[in-house]
Amino acid sequence: MIEQKGILFILSGPSGVGKGTVRKSLFEKDTELRYSISTTTRPIREGEKEGVDYFYRSKNEFEEMIENNQLLEYAQYVGNYYGTPRQYVEETLDAGKDVFLEIEVQGALQVKENFPEGVFIFLSPPSLEELKNRIVSRGTETESLVMNRLKAAKEEIELMDAYDYVVVNDQVSRAVDKVQAIVKSEHCKRERVASQYKKLLEVSES
Fold first, then answer.
1. Which one of 128, 140, 166, 186 has the fewest beta carbons within 10 angstroms of its own beta carbon?
2. 203 among the known binding-site residues?
3. Tens digit of each residue's pLDDT (9 = 90 or more) over 175-198
4. C-alpha triplet 152, 157, 163: angle, nearest 5°
5. pTM value surpassing 0.70
6. Which domains does the chain have, with CATH numbers?
7. Is 13 annotated as a binding residue?
């Protein structure tokens, strides 16, 4: 029996590209994937559960995690910290489960520094015009904010070289199929399975 560790997959891309939609559709089709649960200093809300929605920590506890390199990435939003805990990811991978992290580009680059063995997937819009249409259709952004997001998206697309794969999100179902194909192919990579198969040879020789 060949036993493999899980793989950390990082899905990233510009704001408005549809990361959340693709990730949710993927999880509906693939129940074996595990979503990376974040740690936060924001208060727990009604209906949320520790270890399901987030790991809730005090500001001091979170800053200790930063100091002790216990986070694969972190950021601060509206006065609260959010981050990806290394321990949860590593324990889940050791249990043979794939972990999926959906994150902004800057966070993905932090993960690449701290966990380079992850598989990095850049979700790209079909065009900047299409990305603009998606952001505008949300109806939540002012014109100046839309232009700022597009400027940021151009800069993020230029960082594509830091990724292993690029998937164009022209149609959600097609993008999900491509991500699933990446997951399958990564599990068949020689460098991942070679050591396990060599153990089979050792058993047959003994």
1. 140
2. no
3. 999 999 999 999 988 887 776 677
4. 130
5. yes
6. 1-33+98-206 (3.40.50.300), 37-97 (3.30.63.10)
7. yes
